[in-house]
Design goal:
Layout (H helix, E strand, L loop, with lengths): L27 H6 L9 E4 L3 E2 L11 H14 L5 E6 L2 E6 L1 H10 L3 E6 L4 H15 L4 H14 L4 H8 L3 H9 L5 H8 L5 H7 L5 H13 L4 H30 L3 H15 L3 E5 L4 E5 L4 H17 L1
Parallel strand pairs: 2-4, 3-5
Antiparallel strand pairs: 1-5, 3-4, 6-7
Helix pairs in contact: 2-3, 5-7, 6-7, 9-11
Length: 310
């Protein structure tokens, strides 16, 4: 299980019970900078023996930033070793794929690593926590990783929240982003929308309308607060349009549409609640709405009074 003390203290705080190899090229000053425990073993490994992890939460890498990091590596080397696990003759990355990519671009032949004997769950935990600490994941990548914990490892949202040092509500809201229209999800991947924008847009149930709203938010560069207000107005506007279309449809079906609407209004006033008249070709029905047991009792009493008066 991932230790909570790792959160906020750097990825190296997650790892214990290892020894440093003093014959490697990483100086003690660099070790101090990166908070590497005195018992960690840092080895230099052939960079071609290292493979990315298909379960890595982070799926998108900014090529421009990779180039910038590669330039930095050419100047000062790799400051923090990457974390790997051995798989046969090769090593799979647990944490540090961005550094590995930049090191390859910088032309390094070897790369400093710390080897961990982790199972798939532990490796995914470490990778997720490292990325969250560095704020390297976009909201969608984070959501997919939480869902992976949930679907493949049977972790409930409370357990996931404890592992990553977040509230259960934050994890739940993150996973909900996967209910967005795929086109809106792409906006998240491309960092055109933030998680806050996306959560506001989730209030819209229709996927096509989600996309329409997202385009408007991006086009007008709305803040999250402005987006929340925009979405409220957007939903209200579309509900009114939908009601108007339904009324137009009813007008075509019912020749005496206005007559029935007037009757509905009269019954609304008499009963003190919403009344709908559904008029078909040869039959119809009257629907009387109530919103609590007390209101139902009031309506029953009212009908009894009317019956007694008859």
């Amino acid at each position: 299980m991932t230790h909570k003390k790792g959160l906020g203290k750097g990825i190296s705080a997650l790892f214990e019970n290892n020894s440093i190899n003093k014959d490697n090229n990483i100086s003690s000053d660099i070790n101090d900078m990166n908070n590497i425990d005195d018992k960690e073993t840092v080895l230099e490994v052939d960079i071609n023996k290292i493979e990315p992890n298909e379960n890595q939460p982070r799926k998108s890498f900014d090529e421009e930033k990779i180039i910038e990091l590669a330039d930095s590596i050419k100047e000062i080397g790799i400051v923090q070793p990457i974390i790997v696990k051995k798989t046969g003759e090769f090593f799979k990355i647990i944490a540090g794929e961005r550094r590995w990519r930049a090191a390859r671009k910088a032309g390094l032949k070897t790369i400093p690593v710390i080897i961990k004997d982790y199972d798939d769950i532990k490796a995914l935990e470490a990778s997720l926590i490292e990325n969250i600490q560095r704020e390297n994941l976009n909201p969608l990548e984070e959501a997919f990783t939480y869902k992976k914990f949930y679907d493949e490892f049977n972790f409930n949202q409370e357990t996931i929240a404890k592992k990553v040092g977040k509230s259960r509500v934050a994890v739940t809201n993150s996973i909900r982003l996967l209910n967005l229209d795929k086109r809106v999800q792409n906006f998240l991947k491309e960092n055109k929308l933030s998680g806050g924008h996306a959560r506001a847009i989730l209030s819209i149930s229709d996927e096509n309308l989600q996309f329409e709203a997202a385009e408007k938010v991006i086009e007008e560069s709305l803040s999250v607060r402005q987006t929340e207000e925009f979405v409220r107005n957007f939903i209200e506007k579309n509900e009114k349009q939908k009601a108007q279309k339904e009324n137009e449809k009813e007008k075509k079906v019912q020749p005496n549409f206005e007559v029935y609407k007037n009757i509905e209004k009269s019954l609304n006033d008499i009963l003190g609640t919403k009344v709908n008249i559904k008029n078909g070709k040869n039959k119809g029905k009257i629907e009387i709405e109530y919103y609590s047991d007390e209101e139902l009792d009031r309506l029953v009493c009212l009908f009894n009074i009317i019956k007694q008066e008859e």
